[in-house]
Amino acid sequence: MDTETKAQLKATLDGYLETSRHRKTSERYAILDAVCEMTGHFTIEDLGERLLSRNFPVSRATLYNTISLFIKLHIVIRHRLPAGTRYEICDMENNHCHQICNVCGKITEIKSQIVIDAVGAIKLQRFRREGFSLYIYGICSTCMAKNTRSKTLMEQQKNK
Ligand SMILES: [Zn+2]
Ligand SMILES: [Zn+2]
Fold first, then answer.
1. Cα separation of 58 and 27, whole Å?
2. For residues 75 and 52, is the Cβ–Cβ distance under 8 A?
3. Separation in Å, CA 46 to CA 37, 57, 63, 88, 131
4. CA separation (Å) from 63 to 21, 28, 31, 88, 142?
5. 121-150, pLDDT tens digit by residue?
6. pLDDT band at residue 90 under the 50/70/90 scheme
7. 16, 27, 55, 69: least surrounded by Cβ within 10 Å?
């Protein structure tokens, strides 16, 4: 993430904590730093490990509370996926589609100009567009290969 985006996110947090008279705890800023370092999707556990590796252990309760705050402030978005909850930096310039494997739960991101244009062309009803996220469910190539291998194995055993 570039320093400008990071500064903007920090300013968002500063502004909220000041106006809501919340304490500016070092934990909240350490968690924001860790969030900025994450690439793609992450879990609460990933975030906890990242903080631990920086010698800044944070309790699960604090992590959950802070992430909820970040969601409210549009710093982070939450994906509720079959494989569990994943978080991602909220970047309106980075609208993308997710390919989600129904077998292993792996998520890969793809950009599609067709989808970006189509969503842009949708006439919304009393609603201001901020961004979008699209999920495409299916089977990843690794799982597909495994599937084919086990099928062949079964066939071979049948023919013995
Ligand atoms: Zn898979
Ligand atoms: Zn994503």
1. 7
2. no
3. 11, 12, 11, 12, 25
4. 20, 9, 8, 14, 33
5. 999 999 988 788 889 999 999 999 998 888
6. confident
7. 55
Distance (angstroms) between ligand 1 centre and the Cα of 1 equals 28
CA of 144 to the centre of ligand 2 (A): 22
| Alpha carbon of 62 to ligand 1 centroid (Å) | 32
Structure tokens at 47: 């975030």
Closest among 87, 6, 3 to 44, alpha carbons compared: 87
Ligand nearest to the CA of 96: 2
Confidence at residue 23, expressed as pLDDT on a 0 to 100 scale: 82
Rounded to two decimals, the pTM is 0.76
- Residue 141 CA, ligand 1 centroid: distance in Å: 7
Q: What tokens were used for 141?
A: 């190539």
The tally of CA atoms less than 13 A away on the side-chain side of residue 56 is 16
Calculate how far, in angstroms, residue 142's C-alpha sits from the geometric centre of ligand 1: 6
**Tens-place pLDDT, residues 6-45:** 899 999 999 999 999 888 889 999 999 999 999 888 999 9
